Amino acid sequence: MIDPEEAAQTLAEIGRWHMPFGRYGPKEYPPRGVPLFDLPFEYLQWFTHHGGFPSGRLGELMELLYHIKKDGSDEVFAPFRMRNGGRTKLRKPARREWQFGED
Q1: Handedness of CA 54, 62, 17, 28 (dihedral sign)
Q2: So where are the chain's domains?
Q3: pTM of the full predicted structure?
């Protein structure tokens, strides 16, 4: 049986962590990277097919997050998103300048 207090602490921990490396890390999404709970399901699934999740607590949280999203329970993170002002925008802004021909 799952201890509700431990589950709440683990969800709170997921709410505090940000992706520290890679496509959704601080280099692409400064200053801290994308919050773990806003990582796309497909990105988490990639880890399951390519060698597994990172070692340590980060990997444990990412694997738990993968299962939560896989089961369709992503709404459990709604309070964190409300606190952050909504979902993290993962699309880069559209290019607004075009050049046609040579001037």
Answers
A1: positive
A2: 4-84
A3: 0.83
